Amino acid sequence: MASSRTGLQAILLIALIGFVVVVVLNLIHEAGHAFAGKAMGYDVIVRTNHATIASGRFDSVADGLTMAAAGPLVTIAIALVAFLYARRGSILAAGIVLAALASRLIAAAASLNYPNDEARISIALGLGKWTLFGAVILLLALLTAFALREKRLGWRWYLGAYIGASLGTALVVLGEPWLPVVRF
């Protein structure tokens, strides 16, 4: 009995950590968009799952692409730093790398209906809708594979990470209408 309770506690703890990591990573991703927009002189509105400029219209295509690129670049930077810590043995850092991969995979899936960051940039550059997504996802998948390769975390860790990431993603995406809006 104690073993199953310990296993359930481990899954719940990992799920809680996964939830927090996904939500925080997404907020930092959106902050990347916001800071880029603000640096270019725009008033920016940030929700949990997207950032827009208040006027609804950029002064140039380059400004729009710069703001679109800022979020994924922040996510990649976080994944790279976390990867370095994961290589030193940090399981939490390995989870952050995995969360970065999951976030861009979910963004790619969302792009089936509406082009997300990498898709918009890729289309604008004439590379087709999926080229930049493919490059970003491949990079993050390689980082994730190398970060997790020697960890031997077991099924409880992966189940907890999946549950937490799913709940975090659900909060970010489905909770957006009820969560706070920030203006910069």
Brief summary:
With 184 residues, the chain is mainly alpha-helical.
Task: Please tell me about this protein's structure.
The chain is 71% helix and 4% strand. By secondary structure, it is mainly alpha-helical. The protein has one domain (2-183). A three-stranded antiparallel β-sheet has the order 2-1-3, with helices on one face. α4 (117-124) packs across α5. The N and C termini lie far apart (52 Å). The relative contact order is 0.19.
How would you classify the quaternary structure? single chain
Radius of gyration: 17 Å
Biggest sheet, open or closed, and with what strands and sense?
3 strands, antiparallel
Strand order of the largest sheet: 2-1-3
Count of alpha/pi helices: 6
Overall domain count:
1
The rounded distance between the terminal residues' Cα atoms is 52 Å
How would you classify the helix and strand content by structural class? mainly alpha
User: How much of the residues is beta strand, in percent?
Assistant: under 5%
